[in-house]
Fold these 2 entries.
Entry 1:
Amino acid sequence: MYNFEFKQPKTISDAVNALVSDEAQALGGGQTLIPTMKQRLANPSTLVSLTAISEMKGICKNDDGSISIGGGTTHADVASHSDTFFGLKTLAEKIGDAAVRNRGTIGGSLANNDPAACYPAAALSLGATIVTNSREISADVFFQGMFDTALEEGEIIVSVKFPVPSSSSYQKFVQPASRFAMVGVFLSNFGNETRVAVTGASEGGVFRWSEAEAALNKTFSDNSIKDLSIDHKDMIKDIHASKEYRAHLVKVMTKRAVVSAS
Amino acid sequence: MPKDSGIGAATRRREDARFLLGSGLYSDDISFLNQTYAVFVRSEVANGIIKTVDTSKAEKMPGVVTVFTGEDFVDVGGNPAGWLINSRNGEPMKEPKRPVLAHGKVRHVGDAYAAVIAETEQQARDAAEKINADIEELPAVIDMASALCGSNFVHNEIGTNQCYDWGWIEDNREATDNAIKNAHHVTTLELVNNRLVPNAMEPRCSIADYHSANDGYTLYTTSQNPHLTRLLISAFVLGIPENKLTVVSPDVGGGFGSKIYHYGEEALVLAAAKRIKRPVRWTATRSESFMTDAHGRDHVTKIELALDKDNNFLAFRTETMANVGAYLSNFSTVTPTILHGTLMAGNYAVPNVYVNVKTVFTNTAPVDAYRGAGRPEATYSLERVIDKAATELGLDPTNLRRQNFIKSDQFPYVTAAGLNYDVGDYDAVMDRLEHNADLKGFAKRRKKSEAKGKLRGLGINSYIEACGIAPSNLIGTLGARVGLYDAATIRVNATGNISVMVGAHSHGQGHETAFPQIVADLLGVDPRNVEIVHGDTSKIPFGMGTYGSRSLAVCGSAIVKGVEKIISKGKKIAAHMMETTHDKVDFDEGVFSVRGTNKTVSFGDVALKAYIPHDFPIEDIEPGLEETAFYDPQNFTYPAGAYACEVEVDPDTGQVTIESFTAADDFGNIINPMIVEGQVHGGLAQGIGQALLEGCVYDGDGQLISASYMDYTMPRAADLPSFIVDHTVRTPSTDNPLGVKGCGEAGAIGSPPTVVNAVVDALRSADHDITHIDMPLTPERVWAAMNN
């Protein structure tokens, strides 16, 4: 690790000010950034920790029935909070291990947009709204490819607003070493609409499987997708799985999500 | 009957208190005033010519004390191979020099070519980044088959990538070929024994302290055998006289073989400490452990099994390419040969065995002995091809093995691979397995799994291994450049308690508990009055350390011999005290008595008298009560066992889960059954890790792809079932006084083929025409096998 300056503002506006400098980097739970810095692969001159900002923590129900989760809320808090719902809760409780869940935050995960992270699948599937210090961004436009988001330099995810579906399920097939999603499918059933988001599989990061959504919108049953297949050409290939295997898993995990959410 | 203490008691491990409470003393815990930090500069390419290494900028960085490059070690020796293997044509193996720091060429990713010594670790790292090396990258030699026929050499000076082409036993070759040619049935299988990264929990660490006053050194290092490390440094690498070098290996957090060997970092910190007259320390990062700890396995094998019309085994024949990496690590040449080929008869009365091993240099980290060391590779090949033969011939795999077992009345039995198995009862072990694993109930369990949509498979295996690696006179004829005895000093203190200095090293084996059980039992004293001292060459006799499941069989026997000497001398002192002659004195349960009388003196009184010899007949009896014994066995020991594994395979994803794992082992006599079971559990976890999870992957350019826990899958508790283990079949070794055999590696040797046999069985139950899948059996590989 190289030397760096450490700041821990107590308010969002102080954090935004601290991040004005080019060399400053926001630090959420540090579950990606800190290991990267330890390897000397990242070298921010200033780290601005968001962990002391109380207005960015916690989970609440909104008047319209949606729930808002502060950007600095840990996975452990999401997994254990009574206002969260099945799909989101099971997603949060399967991220990493207990140490990761006690430090890692939803805002950090979404801002990093790792192609194998779990939260992007939930946000995209549920049609979440990412609330930053300056604006609201729809999940449909937030994720712009592997490690790429609509966030501007210095923009902070203050909270995430999730519509509550009538049923939901997250089915994760883990990469055996890292336990990230080799393929993760988040299915949200809003009664009149089903949304299926896939993480871990694609070179382009999280995406919606529109053919499956269309089929499920006609009839919500795992039978509806049994004849579908997804093109493997844009899938990730690594030492753990081929493109073809990942494409196959997308279908298997989607079927399991349908059964689980039925 | 279970006992409360002494031999056979399941005494809790006394060392665990300090390990669990974080109060162990590991090398990295040792700290010196005025110490400095070494950081190594390592190659990022697999193969390259070092044109220049410019250290000028680094030397000017804050806190830098000195900088080393390969140039500084040109005139010192290389790190040698401990075993000479000759090729079939009689030529000795190729032994390219392994320097302290690479010079002229880098040969694998992670090969160190410079080192910076600075006041702090951060300063050393900062300066290391300023070393400017001009390294011309060359194409990497990675694939073994191409390495053998290509003209791109890892070591140009030897003009080949083949270290040797070994045949075992060369005189058996023609008979084996004929047996296969004329056989009723021949089963052939090609397989890969996957390369593994050892992943000891504690990374390697070396700290050198130089003493100007006497030109002496102390090296604190993570070693499984401090005396061997000292010998290698003294006699081969740096030439520091042995009497000027103390090597201390305090608590060591796991080795699995990887800490047997002497590494360049140890020599570097010693040389640096002398140059700057200050202590120099280095602790590996986890990335360095992945790149530079000696890896394990990495064989590509073709095995053939010939059978007659009655399904009797006629011959095993193998052709193996064994990867040795870029340099010869200390035991890298013996592991794929003597420790592998000699076991290729397995548990079977097979008349013909021929093993051919070509060991190949590649631009990868050195490969050496890793838990099991050659025997897992032998067992895997044998037990996979036997299962395949059973499939081809429509036979029950358990019965096929039983039919060909060496029978209990055939021992001692000299196998076609040249070993003399002293004792065993393979059918009895298989009986225990069949009972404990409820093999008869498998069909029912398979139905249940099928009802859940899962494929269930059963895998069976039998294994034998050779432990207590020895004897020196035999291994000398086989090319060993060291002896393989061990040693113990029994020091009875004046107040009657006992310090035992042993040559074996404990880094997870529980010696501090098990060895006192032996001493206490033989002397009739409380085990709590016996303390084990190990890991410090200034305190212990010259022993060969711990590996190859040898500590109890070899060092434990030295302890027995030492205790016998103590009793013998104690009898002389007791005779003097009781005014008789020593031949009339008996010793039992801590009491010396004069035969036929009621005269007695206690062990404690004799000890006290030994150190306060006011009225000793000094011409007959020396003061003190301390004895040293060296023990060199006459043969290996031969633990053997039978394992069963049941798996479920998810046909949608290829995911394998282990539903049960049952192990029945014959370890001969047992000192501490709890420690034995712990060793078996650990071995099984590692073997299951190899079968399902672990795979070290280099790409074609020699980059290590599985270089962190993000990509190298370690077995976790949740991946493993609750093991059923059994060690009630005990045929005591006839070769050592304890009748023990060794249990440290059995689990890792017997489990991989058991798991793979089970998965293949599961897939075949769903009519997939599959006879083999290479390890690790990741979900993708299993799915791909099901879907061609």
Entry 2:
Amino acid sequence: MELKNYQRAVIDDLQRYLDALIDTGKNPVAAWKIYHGKDAPKYNDKISAWRMSV
Amino acid sequence: MKVPTGGGKTFLACATLNHIVDCLSPKYRFVIWLVPSDAILTQTLANLSDTAHPYRQRIDNNFNHNVAIYTKEMLLQAQNFSPATVNDNLSICILSYASLRIDSNKKDIRNVYKENGALENLSQYLNAEDFTLIDIIRKMNPLVIVDESHNATSKLSVEMLTNLNPSFILELTATPKIFSNVLVEIKPAALKAEHMVKLPVIVYNPHDKKNLIDSVIGLRNNLELATIAEEKISGRYIRPIVLF
């Protein structure tokens, strides 16, 4: 079973995020900023803060 | 990852594993694959255990066939679960959310947190604090796949995930909660462009809910028989699904 084009695009995006994660010393918030080109959304609850590291 | 229903979330997860492992270079290639229900667990386990299934073939190809699939019971009995196997293989443990939630009253569920002599060898190898499965998992900093992750957003679920001491968590859902930080989103139009949404669409309005459900499940099962027959002829895998 081959990957669909949109699935390849997803993997490319994930790879881009992973590269950013490594470039930032596995700092998920900094990687998010590089990946999206903007600050990560800021949420008040602890769940979201933790999920930022996901 | 936000992927519409029918968009191939499981196949995508299989295809991402090597990217994550290659990038993070974890000491142990240990994956906890969490699913929300026993039905999905059975299906996922069957698919990933079947070396002829496209999901498993994708993983096998990416990891040179050094792949081991585990159930909770296999882990608890240390069945093919040893220092050698965790060093040599990509180990994938398919578990339900419920099997790890700490407040569960089910006796077999609590076994994950119980001292277990069968795990002594691996515990000592990993310098785990005690002979419990949860401690062994924590020591290996697993990569965690959360299937249908919109079901794992409660405080208890987050504690469960944190308690695994994960090195990375990949969430897959068609309907992320509003506070989720979506890394990648696939639009339904992308599925349509790839002809993943098929015609015809048949609409009718039955009055009895039970008959409706029986009817659509029957229709789906008949379609599955047809697709199995088709796969034998063309080798093309098609999975009929029902959406409620």
